[in-house]
Specification:
single chain; 397 residues; alpha/beta; four-stranded parallel sheet; 15 helices; elongated
């Protein structure tokens, strides 16, 4: 059984290994909410995973340590196990899905672990790890469905209670459920009045679906930019803990996650991966009743692949009304483009791309289309520009 003593033992074991990450005040991210950020994206290895992995491996027998360990991961658990193995002088083999970001694969190798890439997603890597465990006698370090791992993640709860004694609620990302299980159990045991909210991606709502249906269920497929929480099936341990200690679970879209990543970078100079930003997305897009509450969001990881960062930023700009595309039907006569440009410029919009083409069959023979992409301040600014254009007589398509 998971006990508070186990969490305190984990905290003692980790005191010289992990960073006690800062809590940052972030009132502008969600209007009307007294919001804080727990910066586990700045943790050693770039995520919270080192906590559970290290504590689990510190409890292995000498014989188990001699044989080595095997793990599977979408990336962050891999790095946590690899570093924990290095610090404990244990051989580690890590099975990763072949779609894992290159940055996470290379980081895992840099900590001295042997990497085994597996076709498919996390769950396929999990099956391969079990095969290797059976063949080689390795100890399997589960990323979430293990009491020692959950206790390790629960040390974040101890830190939160100390850092924000009058906390009203905590919002936590959910993949397999290890992080939220540890935090929810610890926080609720120490202060039952604190609300614990979980957030999953719309494309991978395995825990939410399981809780809603009253049993552990497996999704047929998962699809989200938050690769760290793209888990088809939660654990039985984590399911039971979430059912007992988590107050509510919501989902966020990839566009909402992208907007949260962008907001964290712009407002707080914090880089998070998709999974690391879902808690903030939950607060930003009002998935829970947080008005006037003191709330902390867990930024669970910062290991975003730089190759997708530009795409995420672009989606975040669109989602927050900072970028838009307009198609305007014009009469093909001199001065039309100049008038459009003047109206946009006068209202402070910045045109970044222009495409002009003749009208299609069935349209006015003198007609043409103007497609423009512009930088804007927000949705209200976009509507202001649209009203000015239509007020001048232009037709928006």
């Amino acid at each position: 059984m998971l006990t508070l003593d186990n969490v305190y033992r984990a905290n003692y074991a980790l005191k010289n290994v992990v960073r006690k990450t800062d809590v940052i005040y972030a009132p502008k991210l969600a209007n009307g909410v007294n919001l804080y950020l727990k910066t586990e994206n700045l943790q050693t290895t770039g995520s919270f995973k080192i906590r559970g992995a290290y504590y689990k491996m510190s409890n292995l027998s000498a014989e188990e340590k001699a044989k080595g360990v095997v793990a599977c991961s979408a990336g962050n658990h891999a790095q946590g196990v690899a570093l924990a193995a290095k610090k404990n002088d244990i051989k580690a083999v890590i099975c990763l899905p072949d779609g894992a970001p290159i940055s996470k694969v290379e980081a895992t190798k840099s900590y001295g672990a042997e990497v085994c890439l597996v076709d498919g997603v996390y769950d396929d890597a999990y099956q391969k790890a079990l095969e290797l465990q059976s063949e080689k006698g390795y100890t399997f370090i589960h990323p979430f469905n293990d009491e020692d791992v959950i206790a390790g993640q629960g040390t974040i709860g101890l830190e939160l209670i100390e850092q924000i004694p009058d906390l009203d609620a905590v919002i936590v990302p959910i993949g397999g459920g290890g992080l939220i299980s540890g935090i929810a159990y610890t926080v609720k045991t120490l202060n039952p009045n604190v609300k614990v909210y979980g957030v999953q991606a719309v494309g991978a709502p395995s825990m939410k679906k399981s809780i809603d249906d009253g049993q552990v269920e497996e999704l047929t497929a998962v699809s989200t930019i938050a690769d760290g929480i793209a888990v088809k099936k939660p654990g039985d341990l984590t399911y039971e803990l979430c059912k007992k200690y988590v107050d509510e679970i919501a989902t966020v879209t990839d566009d909402e996650i992208s907007a949260a990543i962008l907001a964290l970078m712009e407002q707080h100079k914090l880089v998070t991966e998709g999974a690391g930003a879902v808690a903030v997305a939950g607060a930003m897009f009002k998935k829970f009743n947080l008005e006037g509450k003191k709330v902390v969001c867990i930024l669970s990881g910062g290991n975003i692949d730089v190759t997708i960062l530009s795409r995420v930023i672009k989606r975040g700009l669109l989602m927050s009304g900072r970028n838009c595309q307009l198609t305007i039907e014009l009469m093909d006569k001199p001065g039309q483009l100049k008038d459009v440009s003047r109206i946009i410029a006068d209202l402070g919009g910045n045109v970044t791309s222009v495409h002009h083409e003749r009208a299609n069959e069935g349209s006015d023979v003198n007609g043409c289309y103007l497609r423009i992409i512009l930088e804007t301040k927000n949705y209200e600014h976009i509507e202001q520009i649209k009203r000015a254009l239509t007020g001048y007589g232009f037709k928006l398509i």
